[in-house]
Every structure is written in C-alpha cells, then in structure tokens.
Design brief:
This protein has about 230 residues and is of the alpha/beta class. It has a single domain (about 10-225), classed as 3-Layer(aba) Sandwich (Rossmann fold). It contains 9 helices and 8 strands. A 5-stranded parallel β-sheet has the order 2-6-1-7-8, sandwiched between helices. A 3-stranded antiparallel β-sheet has the order 3-4-5, covered by helices on one side. Helix 1 (about 20-30) crosses helix 9, helix 2 packs across helix 4 and helix 7 (about 155-170) crosses helix 8. The protein is globular. The protein binds 2'-deoxycytidine-5'-monophosphate. The site of 2'-deoxycytidine-5'-monophosphate has 14 residues, from helix 2, helix 4 and helix 8.
Length: about 230
C-alpha cells in the first residue's frame, strides 16, 4: 500500500452507531502511537450549541448560523480521549446526553455544518499520525488515507451492546426501544443527501459480530503495519 506522501499516514475508521469504532479507534491509536479524533463529538458539539442557544434543530438555516458563530476547539485528553471546548466552556461531558442523541442526526445532515466540521478535520489530519473515526472519513474527509476501515455489526448486536451499557449504568430502558432508535439513526445516517454513511470503495470491512474487542483491535493493529 502507498503512504501517499505522509511519513505516518492518517487512518480512517467509519461505521454505524455503536459499531465500537470510538473505543476500538482509541485503542488502535494508543497501540501505534497515533493521536485519536472522534469526529462524532464535533457534530454533537454543534448540536449541543444549537440546543443551548434555543435554535430549532430542524431548521437547517438556523442550525448553520449557530454553527458558524460557534467558537470551538478539539484537544487531546489525558487518556487518549478528546475534549471539546465551545465558547470557552468544556462541554465534553454533555455530549452524550439523550437530548443530544435525539437531535444530532438532524444537525449532522446540514450541509454547511458538515463543511465547517470537515474543514477542521482535514486541518487536524494534515499532520498525519492520527486515527480519525466517523461516518465519512474514508469517503470525504481523507479519501487519500492508505488504510480505511469500515467497522460494522448487525443492528441487533449493536442494540444489545447499548442495552448492556445502559443496564451497567443503572438506567432501565427497554431493548426494543433501543433497537428502534438505532434503526432510525441508521436510516437517517445512511440515506441523508450529504455524505451518507457508506464504506469507501477501497475500505477494509471488519464485521465485529463474532469478535471480541481485543480481537478487533489486534486485527486493526496488523492492518496498520502495512502502511508504515
Ligand atoms: O458517532 P456518533 O454517534 O457520536 O455520531 C453522532 C452523529 O454525528 C451521528 O448521527 C452521525 C454523525 N456523524 C457524521 O455525520 N459524520 C461523522 N464524521 C461523524 C458523526
């Protein structure tokens, strides 16, 4: 595989919600000494900012304007995670709140929001040595990345994983409700006009249904060796 001119080329990981791409991507990055960027957090930040400013998240023009006014910065946390600061406030802990979950697909479908986020993602990818995780990283953000991974699992497996997480956190929620909401998000993410979720033509598809977390990470570490 060619490294397209980067000494330590960026790695793209895409996949549907709860395919494990954030935790797997973070672990891969720490194994190979790369930075990690979870781009979903950036769309979540735009969503949180819109909600905080009383913007109707179903109004694309208002959402785009709020995003243009938002002063945001992404940095590396101490444990290989990402921290997001919006207008001077660290909002990272708010980004997985249910209100954000419910509105983020709609905000992420606004073209102007995507332009702003993709420009920042490309700037961050420019230095190489980064594992970038999202929905359109291999298709739109860094199609030149020599290693593009598409991590996937059936909707039922992913809903099961999310259900287990909720139970572990003491949150009582019906499996069927999670399954329905997951199906809905998959549909919105993969059928939207702007940068729909799909594997790049040259992506390596990794189906995680039958694999443990450690097996997935080991597999990706092996794949990464080919690009150094
Ligand atoms: O990965 P996540 O669940 O944190 O992503 C949140 C939302 O942002 C989800 O609806 C998909 C969207 N997203 C996107 O459109 N493009 C990306 N590169 C990353 C996330």
């Amino acid at each position: 595989m060619s490294n397209k001119g980067y000494a330590r080329p960026p790695i793209a990981i895409d996949g549907p919600a709860v395919s494990g791409k954030s935790s797997v991507g973070r672990s891969l990055a720490s194994h190979i000494g790369y930075r990690f960027l979870d781009t979903g957090l950036m769309y979540r930040a735009a969503t949180w900012n819109a909600i905080k400013n009383g913007v109707n998240v179903n109004d694309p023009i208002a959402v785009a304007e709020a995003c243009e006014r938002m002063d945001f910065a992404v940095s590396d946390g101490e444990i290989g995670d990402n921290q997001i600061v919006v207008n001077g406030e660290n909002i990272t802990n708010h980004l997985h709140a249910p209100v954000v979950d419910d509105a983020v697909s709609s905000v992420a479908s606004v073209g102007r929001v995507r332009e702003i986020m993709v420009a920042e993602q490309r700037r961050l990818a420019n230095g190489g040595a980064i594992v970038m995780v999202g929905r359109d990283i291999g298709t739109v953000v860094i199609p030149e990345a020599p290693l593009k991974i598409y991590l996937t699992a059936t909707v039922r497996t992913r809903a099961n994983r999310r259900h287990r997480d909720f139970i572990a956190e003491g949150i009582n929620i019906e499996f069927e409700d999670i399954l329905r909401s997951m199906e809905q998000r998959d549909l919105i993410d993969s059928s939207r006009e702007n940068s729909p979720l799909r594997p790049a033509d040259d992506a390596r598809i990794v189906d995680t249904d039958e694999l443990t977390f450690g097996e997935v990470v080991n597999h990706l570490v092996e794949l990464a060796k080919d690009i150094f």
